[in-house]
Write a structure and sequence with these properties.
The structure is a homodimer.
Chain A (H helix, E strand, L loop, with lengths): L3 E9 L4 E4 L2 E4 L7 H16 L8 E4 L11 H9 L7 E5 L4 H14 L5 E9 L9 H4 L4 E10 L6 E9 L7 E2 L17 H4 L2 E2 L1 H23 L8 E4 L6 H7 L11 H4 L6 H11 L8 E8 L3 E8 L1
Parallel strand pairs in A: 4-5, 4-6, 11-12
Antiparallel strand pairs in A: 1-7, 2-3, 6-7, 8-13, 9-10, 12-13
Helix pairs in contact in A: 1-2
Amino acid sequence: MRNIRIAGYGKYAPENTMEFHGECRYRANGSETQLDMAVKAARRALAIAKMQIEEIDCIVSASAVMMQPIPCNAALIHEQLAKGRNIPAMDINSTCTSFVTALDMMSYLIAAGRYRNVLIVSSDIASEGLNEAQQESYELFSDGAAAFVISRTENEKQGVMDSIIRTYSEGAHSTEIRGGGTLHSAMKYRTEDRADYCFDMKGKSILSLSAKKLPELFREFEEKSGISCSEVDIIVPHQASKALPFIMSRLGIPAEKYVDRVRQYGNMVSASIPYVLCALLEEGRIKEGDRVLLCGTAAGLTCNLLLLQL
Amino acid sequence: MRNIRIAGYGKYAPENTMEFHGECRYRANGSETQLDMAVKAARRALAIAKMQIEEIDCIVSASAVMMQPIPCNAALIHEQLAKGRNIPAMDINSTCTSFVTALDMMSYLIAAGRYRNVLIVSSDIASEGLNEAQQESYELFSDGAAAFVISRTENEKQGVMDSIIRTYSEGAHSTEIRGGGTLHSAMKYRTEDRADYCFDMKGKSILSLSAKKLPELFREFEEKSGISCSEVDIIVPHQASKALPFIMSRLGIPAEKYVDRVRQYGNMVSASIPYVLCALLEEGRIKEGDRVLLCGTAAGLTCNLLLLQL
């Protein structure tokens, strides 16, 4: 057990929404940036934690895409929230599961005494890279952000009970944005290659790989941790797609055991898991002592499981 | 002390070089990608470690810029080195000091028993983003990669003795590539805005901020760790620029105590520190028992210090 506690949480989604088949999707529509959303969610998390930025000793950005190629996202968030202070800022990235990976890693540093209060921020603005011609992804994604203040605790029952990360790179090109990095530079952009600079999701291929790998992963995690899914109070999965119930049924997880908010929120990329976790805390649906299993699939294909006792 | 050891190391720079004022700069010249260089350095590190990829249990990419916006660099490296295996892959980014930040973080996870052998790879291809019109940066940067296998050790004298990271975001825009992320999308690229998509360094401004902040940081580190710079065998600084001797003299560090290879290698961005560290190991200039202080400044402005006992 790595003893940490959630000291503050905040989420943010743009006011502007779109509707597809009766489902709500948040879209910034040019009025807000990925950075704006990150900062708003972070300020809410600080307010709930009743902390000033002076009490935070590390800022971690855990988003899928970058705001600028240089510097890292966390430095830009630092500039908005902590300019003039010298707390460290760095990015941790495993695409859609970046938040879970960051929480997983930082729990070691907090437990070891390196940091006392860490601000982890996930913010993604999918709408900047969606391709209208790819209906499945265009109608699925939302813009959003969520932030958490994670703190050291003396309560020995609180913290990360266990966690696991696996990357299956046979799925490395099933979810991607090919253009904009060094392999296909932004400066080589031509209108006719637009699709290469947009989000490209091979839905069926990821679904089939996830459906194959997740049951193995859950088994491995149950053996490793000695805790079965039935002993968990709630599962917060990445809101990957409408196929969530299919995947959960493949895992033998009953509907009352997991949270499906795809209709309400869509897939918010890296913000998806922390956004739902934040909503559950705001609604009082989860409380101290509960065992929450964060579970996600990400481009890579990377899968994360992290069991948190609140 | 977080007990880890260097089990393997490898570096790679493109064959093609350019010369400016008698100084050598490596430039891939379109024949190699950031990913190619990462993979070559990683294979060398595995060979020196006498390990197969099967013995590695985590791949961390610690580069400044991304190869593709999605997925993360580590997933693409995983695909080249570890396809069909399911070891985790994630990116850690603090721009030029990404390697030091990654080593710092992963030392906690290794010491805590999460991973036994971690492959950390830094690869950057500055030439993809340099602006010929900005002579100072154009003539300074090189392309290069370096990789390390970091392993758990039972030797209680080996490992990370102490480390510190500080971000001074008043320097957030002193070193940047503004375009290509979500704030200035690749899809909005116009030839007349090219400079916004290129590397932009305000050399004087960073130098003055570094010269002000680094002495404070060194003092803080000496107090925190209880180890003074005079007790360190060698300092491996980020090869930031020709001003390295100026900065070192400001810190009161004599020339024989630090490594300056700016003439030979240029500034290799995130690969800079691990490339020099690798060169020193290859040359037998550092050996088991030596105390090596890694020291870097990065866009952000982020400063890292990490004291390693080999």
